[in-house]
Prior knowledge:
The complex is a heterodimer.
Chain A: H1 2-16, H2 19-46, E1 51-57, E2 72-77, H3 83-87, E3 95-99, E4 110-113, H4 120-140, H5 147-154, E5 162-165, E6 171-174, H6 176-211, H7 213-218, H8 223-263, H9 268-279, H10 283-291, H11 296-306, H12 309-337, H13 345-365, H14 372-377, H15 384-391, H16 398-426, H17 436-444
Parallel strand pairs in A: 1-2, 1-3
Antiparallel strand pairs in A: 3-4, 5-6
Helix pairs in contact in A: 1-8, 6-8, 6-12, 6-13, 6-15, 8-12, 8-16, 9-10, 12-15, 12-16, 13-15, 16-17
Chain B: E1 2-12, E2 17-27, E3 31-35, H1 42-49, E4 57-62, E5 65-66, E6 75-78, H2 90-100, H3 105-118, H4 134-146, E7 152-156, H5 164-179, E8 183-187, H6 191-197, E9 200-205, E10 208-214, H7 215-221, E11 226-233, E12 242-250, E13 253-260, H8 267-275, E14 279-286, H9 290-308
Parallel strand pairs in B: 3-8, 3-9, 6-7, 7-8
Antiparallel strand pairs in B: 1-2, 1-4, 4-5, 9-10, 11-13, 11-14, 12-13
Amino acid sequence: MSKISLIIEREYLTRVQKKSFILMTILSPIIMVALIFAPIWLAQLSSDETRQIAIIDQTGLYEGIYQDSEEYQFTYTQGTFTPSQMRDGDSQPYAYVIIKGNLLDNPSGMTIYSQKQITNSCELMIKTQMEEFLKNEKLLSYNIPNIQQIIDESDVNLSIDTIRLEEDGAETQTSSEMVMVIGMAMTLIIYMFLMLYGGQVMSSVMQEKTNRIVEVMVSSVKPFELMIGKIVSIGLVGLTQLGIWILFIAGILISAGAIFSLGGTPDAASIEGMTAMAGGMNGADAAQLAVGETGIAQEIQRLMDSINITQLLICFVFFFIGGYILYASLFAAIGSAVDNESDTQQFMIPITFIIIFALYAGIFSAENPDGPLAMWCSMIPFTSPIVMMVRIPFGVSTWELALSMIILYGSAIGLAWIAGRIYRVGILMYGKKPSYKEMIKWIRYKA
Amino acid sequence: MYYLEANHIVKQYATHRALDNVTIKVPRNGIYGLLGPNGAGKTTLIRIINQITAPDEGEVLINDRPLHPSDVEHIGYLPEERGLYKKMKVGEQILYLAQLKGLSKNDAKERMKYWLGKFDIKGWEKKKIEELSKGMQQKIQFITTVMHRPELLIFDEPFSGFDPVNANLLKQEILEMRDNGATIIFSTHNMGSVEELCDEITLINRSHAVLQGEVAEIREQHKKHLFKIEVQQGELQSNDLYEITHAHPIHRGHAYTLRKRDPHMSNNELITLLTQQCQIAGFEEILPTMNEIFIETVGESALEEKQNA
C-alpha cells in the first residue's frame, strides 16, 4: 500500500509542478471567457458601420415606415430603377428594397437587390418591420374604435413561473433555461476531463513503456499497483484543476454578489449593459427585465434555490470519478499494448465514438430528460456519467441515481481489473501491434 | 547451499513456449552465468525470478522457501534495456526507486551520498537524467540497482554501453558485492567476461537448459584433447597415438598443435612419450573457450532442430 502512495505522490507532484499544468490552469478560464465574449464583442464592432438602404417605393404607400438606427439608414425614392442603375457607380447603397405594389394585396411585391449577399439579420429586420406595419395597417382598416389602444394593450409580455413539485412535498421555483445550461455545462466538463485526463493516462503509460523504465518499476512493484497509482494520481491532478477553477468561479460570484448587495437595487443602466453582454439580448428586453418584478439578483437567488446545489456537486464528483476510472482503465490498457502513438488510432476510434455518442445523447437528453434515450444512456456505464449530469438538474429519482451509480462503479472496477491484466502483459511486449484477439488472450494469462 | 532454485519452470506464450522444464540452482554467494542466444528464454526466466511474470508450471525457491512478493526487496535487477525517467532529477530518481524497494528516505539519502562519491559524481543530484551522457546514465542505473543492498543481484548484459574503464570499474563493484555476500546472476553474450567472472553457468537454447555446471568443469568436459607444444630440438610427426594438426617454426625450434588419439591417455604419459623424441620447451593443454563451447552447443541443437524438421 505504501508503494502505491509513493507512486501517487511522485506522479502527482511532478504533474502539478509542471509549467504546462500551471499555465493551463490559469489560462483555461481566461481563454474560455475570451471564447464566449470575443464573438459578441466582434459583432458589436461590425455594427459601428452604418449601412445605407435605399427604399424604392413605386406605390408611395410606405414612406417613412423604416426608422434610421445605428446600423441602418434609409432613403426613400419613388419611380423605377433598372438593374444597371443599381449596379453602376461607386457609391451604391448596401441594398435596394423595391416595392412594386400594395403589399396587402400582393405579399410578394417586395424585392431586395444588393451587390453583396445581404445578411440574414438585415433581411429579417426589413421583413419583420414591414409585417408589423402591415398588420397594424390591416387592423386599422377595419375602423374599429380605439383600435390603436387595443393594439398597444394586446402587446403583453408574459413572465411565467415554473414550479417543480418535489418528492418531499415542497415546491421549488425553477428556471428551465438555467437548469438546462447548468446540465450542459456539467456534461461538457465531464466530457472534457474524460478525454483530456484519460489521454494523459494513455500517453504516460506509453512513455514508461517506450522509455523501458517500466521493467525496473515492475521489479519493485506489481504492475497493477503501478497502473492504479498512475490512474489515481492523474485523476487527482484533474480534481485539483477542477477545484482551483471552482474556487475561481466562487470567488467571482461572491465578489459579484457583494457588489449587488452593496448597491441595493441595481440601476437599470448597469443591468442593461450586463445582460446585453451576457445573452446578446437587445437593450429593451434587458431594461424591461430590470424594471420588472424580478431583478437579476433575485433571478440568481431563484436559480440557486431551484437546483439542489449540494446534490448536484456530490453527484458530479461521484460520476466524474466513476467515469474517469472506467475510461482511464481503457486508456491505460491501450497505452500498455502499443509501442507508439500511431498504433493507438485503431483502439482509440471505438472509444472516441462512444464518448462522442454519449455527448450527443447528453445534448438530446436536455430536450427530453425523461425519455427512453436519456433513461437508457444514463444507465449504460460508458455514457451514464455524461448523460446523467444533464438529467440531474431536472430532477432524477433516487433509485435511478443509485442504480446508475452501482452499474457505473461495478463496471469501472471490473474494467480496471481487466485493464490491469492486459497492462501487465502489454507493458513487456514490444514489436508487433497486438490484435484484439491477442489482448483477450492476455487477460487469461497467469499473473 | 543454494540461494535460489528455479525448478521445472514452464512458461507458455500464445504461440510459443518460452521456457520448457528449465531448472537452475544458483549457489549462495557465487556468480552464476545465464547464457544463450537472443530469444532463448533468458529474459523470461529472469522476469519470473523477479516476479514480473509467473510461470505456468514449476516453482522458484529463495533460501529454500517459495518466492514471496516481499522478496523483491532483496533482489536488485538491472535489465538489458535500461530505462530511467528522463525528466527526473538524478537525486529524486535514485531516492524514488530506492524507496520503492523498501528503503526509508533517510537511509536512501545516506547511501546515495556514498554511491555518488564512489562513482565520482558528487553534486549531480540536481541534474536531469536527459542531460547526462549514456555512460553516465548507466552509472545512475547501476546505483539504483544496488542501493537497497540486495542479497540477489541480476545483471542483464551489464557491460553494454560502458567504456573499458568504466566496465572495469563495474566489474570490480560486482566482485566486491560478491565478496560481501551477495549472490549474482549474470546474463551476457560476452563469453570473455563469463570465463573471468562466473563460477557456474546455464546455457539456455530454444527454451531448454542445454548445458549446466561449473565453468571449469564444462571447459574440461568439452576439451578436444589438444595441446600446444613447443619443441627446441627434434621434430614431431603424427603417429597412431597422436596427431599433429598444426606446425610452424618459431624462434628456436617448432610450435605444434597436437591432438591425442586416446582420450584416456594421461597427460603425464603423453609428456613421457614426447620427451623421448624431442626437447620440450613448452607444454600446455588447450581448453576450449566458453565462446567455442557456446557456438558448438547452440550450433548442434540448431542442427538437430533442422534434422527433426
